[in-house]
């Protein structure tokens, strides 16, 4: 049922945390040092894919995708050219790592906020090459099925009726890679809704990306203190107001929604 990986606690204890200490210097704003250290794997304009200096997982290679030059912006506020270019860069590097044959699988995700498992405020994503683990063996199609909020050729935006972790999860299912930019816009809408309308108290979310049977899926998850039902008993709670949430998103972001 579960996959276990060893976590290097001593390395983790040395990591900076600008989420918890705003006086701490942001390592991703200091590009001069990043380039001096020789950890840049790929670059395109403001986007960097760099080696994670804190390799906390055994049998894995951890990388960070830096999304912006400074700490000012986040995914919910990017203009469309920046948003589209970010997803182009991220997808290109993710697929290249998957095709390299170096890893059993490559996981791709984003943390935002103190409840997300992140430590750095500066907008970034993470790519992790797993030597021995194929994350796909834990995936099931029902996990990204749901009530449709909006759709366009090659991509669907829905709210999950069978969430992986419980409560509110949005899914964007990309079946045509040419619709990647539309997928990016749907992801941004989901993130903006979570931060500004769904639950302003916690201001935390994760985005998990999956490749499954030819589709690319993005799952956007509202993060808050963990449910004891899930942690203790693997019982997943599903809200009884999903239809209401769908109508709220449609009224806010899709004015022509019926």
TrEMBL record:
Top-down, what is the taxonomic lineage of the species of origin?
Answer: Bacteria, Bacillati, Bacillota, Bacilli, Bacillales
Q: Which InterPro entries match?
A: DUF4931 (IPR046322), DUF4931_C (IPR049285), HIT-like_sf (IPR036265)
Q: Which Pfam families match?
A: DUF4931_C, DUF4931_N
Give all residue intervals belonging to the DUF4931 domain. Answer: 7-133, 138-254
This chain's protein is named: DUF4931 domain-containing protein
